[in-house]
From TrEMBL:
PROSITE patterns: ALDEHYDE_DEHYDR_CYS, ALDEHYDE_DEHYDR_GLU. GO terms for cellular component: cytoplasm. It comes from Selaginella moellendorffii (Spikemoss). It catalyses: D-glyceraldehyde 3-phosphate + NADP(+) + H2O = (2R)-3-phosphoglycerate + NADPH + 2 H(+). Pfam families: Aldedh. Its EC number is 1.2.1.9. The active site is at 265. It is found in: Cytoplasm. This is NADP-dependent glyceraldehyde-3-phosphate dehydrogenase. InterPro entries: Ald_DH/histidinol_DH, Ald_DH_C, Ald_DH_CS_CYS, Ald_DH_CS_GLU, Ald_DH_N, Aldehyde_DH_dom, ALDH-related_metabolic_enz. SUPFAM superfamilies: ALDH-like (SSF53720).
Amino acid sequence: MAAGTGPFEEIIDGGVYKYYADGEWRTSSSGKSVTIYNPSTREAQYKVQACTQEEVNKAIDSAKAAQKLWAKVPLWKRAEALHKAAALLKELKDPIAECLVKEIAKPAKDAVSEVVRSGDLISYTAEEGVRILAEGKFLVSDSFPGNDRTKLCLTSKIPLGVVLAIPPFNYPVNLAVSKIAPALIAGNAIVLKPPTQGAVAGLHTVQCFHRAGFPKGLISCITGKGSEIGDFLTMHPGVHCISFTGGDTGIAISKKAGMIPLQMELGGKDACIVLDDADIDLAAANVVKGGFSYSGQRCTAVKVVLVMESVADDLVSKVNAKIAKLKVGAPEDDCDITAVVTESSANFIEGLVKDAKEKGATFCQEYKREGNLIWPLLLDHVRPDMRIAWEEPFGPIVPVIRISSVEEGIHHCNASNFALQGCVFTRDVNKAMMISDAMETGTVQINSAPARGPDHFPFQGLRDSGIGSQGVTNSIAMMTKIKTTVINLPAPSYSMG
């Protein structure tokens, strides 16, 4: 959709997308903009406002004031507003998906699916939030030794205040609403700082909430350079909670943020352990799906395959046959492999490939790159001294490490500084559970590739993969705090006989 036409005309000014604060679409006083480049063409695609620190201050001040009133709005009315936003998001799925295609080179069909899934997530959160937040707890004092029934304790969940949401480029709509919807149903205000690649899709998402009639100031969408407003936002005293999904930046945020709840989902080096009794066809299909979907630009992508030597040749052969069928090209054509998000990402991936080549990895395909487009590549006979064995490529490169024992695979998995997800392929449920227990990672998938969804499942990582847990229920819990009211009663008069 051309700039300045259709349902998004109100949020564009002179070819530059406005930011959203205090219920209005605004142009930054900085007079500057940030250019978003199309990963496929490497040409300028969109421009967004470069907001100032003063504009951040004003947005947070408005959020604090709006939140006080929003917290008093009945739960069912909050849910009703979220359902309206969900319907609007689905209604505008095609133009929003078009932004995802141009901003982050997401294949067209996957882009539409992300928007629809996000609408479903908002609606589910509205319903689940009503159930969770309706429940409190009742305690009586004489349930603890030495006490009479002189106190009645009532607990309930109340909002934290202002939630700062920072989603990543790879799912800028879904991972924005996974933070926005729980925050709002819980009675919080939200300040969204979208990623540069994905900022326009984020603005369009916020426009759906704007049209749904949420109170002025309750939701803000601040665009700009991380170097100018990143630390200012994350260290702002008006922010009461941070929900971040992304890479190493999250570790820096966790060190700088104040004493507030943090929800951090960071990188992953998700290991796929394939045992000698596995269904090799199933394992091969999942290695390809898990390793190459959206060109491997997923925190839950299969990042290393640890396969028993006795079945390694069979697995590698079947994976290679499937890789040969992957379509490489433009996201508009629904290709399986599209350009990675930036030139710097492509250069980083190429560095990992060169290191593997110098150290003797077996290339199952010829390494091929055109601009930001990298062809899918399986690297066999990878050893622990290669960077690709440990570092996260975030691209269509999958390393295979041959192992001689289950213990060797578990050791490699647990030696990583990442611990987001992992998976194991075996026909023996006892072995599967033993390995799941031994793998030090947030989630273990049995006989399936790692995946974040469905969106209501708990989702968390250990070590450098993050802190806190996502999923609708967990996010609502994290974005609330317990309020206790104690009713003091007269001392009872009683006799035991």
